[in-house]
Amino acid sequence: MTTVTFVLASRSPRRVQLLREQGYVFDCLPVDLPEVPGPGEAPLAYARRLALDKARAAQARSGRPALGADTDVSIDGRILGKPRDAEDACAMLLALADRSHQVISAVALVDGSREAVIATTTEVEFVSLDRAQALAYWASGEPADKAGAYAIQGLGGRYVRALRGSYSGVVGLPLAETAELLAQFGIHPGPAASV
Question: Which residues does UniProt mark as catalytic (predicted)?
């Protein structure tokens, strides 16, 4: 039997899958925190703060090392959260169309008084798309719970022309950086799970 080494402060199936594929053994302990940027809070600062707040909350509840993460889409310094409805998703997708935006993924690890945060910024360039395409994509159901109203690992991948940075960071967890962070705390994966 393999020993659980940390808790993941997330209910994201994508983060769970990414970590399990790498061989990490952990429990999920989602925390519900308000995900609202503070006045004038920059996208990078916002992502780092949320990841750390999630990790702190999960560590306080579990007494075990806790990993928190936050992934945000931003364009022109504006944070695009999860869409409220079809119109909101359409507006986001059209704002991203035929230009570049940033996806920031922050990961925090908390173990007692020891805390560390890392973050990646990935430049993503979209193809052109129109309102009908955006609404059809919304109808698929995929964008409903995704920051920026798209999932690069799903149907939304068809809109990505180019990417400079961490693909897994856009999915929700930058793997190389997360592995380095966990290793700093003495947490290492077992054999990678079969997929």
Answer: 70 (proton acceptor)
